[in-house]
Amino acid sequence: MGDEREGGTVEIDVKGATADLIWRFLDFYIPDKVSPLIESCTILDGSSREPGCVRYCVTNPVPPPPGENASGEASVIRAKERLLAIDHAHKTYSYELIENNVGIQGYISQLKVFGEDGVVGCRVEWTFSADSYGVLSKEALGEFLKNFVQSVVHYVEQAAAKREP
Asked: What is the DSSP letter of 34?
């Protein structure tokens, strides 16, 4: 495979919530609670707040990526992931994909929330790279991650709006 890894970056601007609030909802253990894209997420080992934590996530059916190779049927993605590093002060963590059912190899990702404490509005940046994307394309995975982050942001913005007087 060489030293060349293919990757991408997903960036989402958040207008209706603080960086602190978004960070709490992007915790490593709760994606199924804040996004309709994830059916379940279970901690298998460790704490979601410490490196070494292993989680197992299952998506709801994901439509095939557009293009001539698409089978036309939605599929469920199953993935076991390990938290590599986490920095709560800088609102960032990285993780690796250690098992999956779609053939992704060598996947590493970093999620970071940018914004000033207490100020409404922030940005979420999710970078990823892999040696191989299996049955997915880099673009299809990027689109899934973008949709995931947008669904979490939508959930958090709605929750924040409900707390407003």
From this structure: H
